[in-house]
Amino acid sequence: MSFLEGFRFRGSDSLMHRLDPRVKFVYVCVIFVIAVVYTDFLVQVLLFILQFPAVYLGKVYRQWMKSMRGAVFLAVFILVSILLSQYFYYGYNLLLSDFEYALAMSMRFIVLVASFSIFFLTTSPDYLGLALEQSGVPYQFCFAFVTAVRFVPVLADEAQRIIDAQRSRGMELEKGSFLKRVRNYIPILIPLIVNAVKRSLELAESMESRAWGSSKKRSSYYTLKLRRGDYALAAISIAALSISLYVKYLVMQGLIRIPMVLPLILRT
Amino acid sequence: MIEVDNLFYRYPSGVEALRGVSLEIRRGEFLAIMGKNGAGKTTLVKHFNGLLKPTSGSVKVDGVDTRELSVAELSRKVGMVFQNPDHQLFCETVEEEISFALKNFGFDEETIEKRVEWALHLLDLERYRKSSPLVLSGGERKRVALASVLAWDPEVLILDEPTIGQDQRQKEILRQFILQLNAQGKTVVMVTHDVEFVAECNPRVVLMSDGRIIADGAAKTVLTDFKTLREASIIPPQITQLFSSIAKYGFPQDVIDLWEAKSILHDVLLGGKVR
């Protein structure tokens, strides 16, 4: 569960927190696009290093490390499975470039988790909903989205309580064959789902009793406004996107090459 | 039966919930743990069946450190009934719900059948044996949860907030039931906010505040100590408050029980003087 802590917003204030959620989202999407476009280890490492200033400015180092720890674990899994599949696919033989590729893919995953983790750590779900609303998304969808995000920690908390209750009745999760282990989760999933459905009905009732949906056009207390920092980040994002796409174009034309990292390391 | 020695517990989030708790619960004792929200009551009892393991210090059940046993092994001895029955009910019928734990503990068919029957009878749930636990009322669901734990006959019974959402009649039935179990030699530990309920049960009371035990003694002593109670954000029983407000007329100050109060007032009204 501590992995999810790396995505859970806690009220706090910093330069990153004050940025407009829309611009922050554009920035994260740009990182995403660059990470997906390139398959080079070097680029992925650079992208990862680019996240450090954001973490520093957002003062979310500790929570961010939690998501990173979880990501590294999965990245190792990705690394091993790619290497294995390459190994068998290319006739029990691995080249240095295969290692480089596998490392790049794992790093890509880490970059994606890192950037989205920063986004969610520094953006309150309320502002996220507001951003959606002011981008013209119908209010019902915004509300559903915000509610879903908001109830994740509640659900995680409840799952833990249910696990405790069932373990107190002698249930052992880590016992038996694979199929048995999957079945072991039934006593946890059923109460969790039943309670979630119950809670959503209660939520609907309480919302309706507070006149939810009585007017077509809702006004909001807070409005989002772009400030200087937001324009700066937007400019950086667009510049980064254009440069990286241009470089990729040059690479594809064969005009430049991005150096491999492993041979460099091995040579020294 | 349960020995807690200088127990500290820190949650992974960094919150220090218990700071040096020492407590001994003897076999056959009836204990109520009280204190405000966040005082560490539930955290403490979760150590008794091994759901939580000490950060430092130790918890021993029957002389064995809980770190050496699994939750399942400990639960066989220490049965825990949680506050919200909806966190455990998942079977299609009440019968199956009660037999879930018995199957986990590896009882044979015949014993399971007998135990389920016994538990259904004990909690007056026989007519619901084939109903889904989800269609029952709140109080009934709580009874199913209780039955599902009592079915394996644990030596120690832990009840987390047993009176929440129960009406007066159900509370009285519950009280009789707990006292009966205790009289039969079962160790009972309950975590509760319900001062009046504790006053009527008259158990040993442990008061907690900020992860520490601030008072431990007979209900009569602890529940009439206004100063310590205030520290734990607990209001004394109404009877005690009443007797405190008429202290100047020479009334005793250690009254928590309605019957005792009645008999004292009866004597005064008939005899015209305070004993």
**H/E element string of chain B?**
EEEHEEHEHHHEHEHEEHHHH
For the CA atoms, what is the radius of gyration of chain A? 23 Å
- Multimerization status: heterodimer
How is the main sheet of chain A built?
Answer: none
Low-confidence stretches of chain B: none
Number of helices of chain A: 12
Number of strands of chain A: 0
Fraction in beta strands of chain B? 15-25%
Instruction: Compute the average pLDDT of chain A.
Output: 87
Distance between the termini of chain A: 41 Å
Helix content of chain B: 25-40%
Total helical elements of chain B: 11
Report the principal-axis shape of chain A.
Answer: flat
Largest interface comes to:
A-B, 20 and 26 residues
- How much of the residues of chain A is beta strand, in percent? under 5%
Q: What Rg of chain B is obtained from the alpha carbons, in whole angstroms?
A: 20 Å
Q: Which structural class fits the helix and strand makeup of chain A?
A: mainly alpha
For the secondary structure, the number of strands of chain B is: 10
Alpha-carbon distance between the two ends of chain B = 41 Å
Largest beta-sheet characterization of chain B: 6 strands, mixed
- The ordered string of helix (H) and strand (E) elements of chain A is HHHHHHHHHHHH
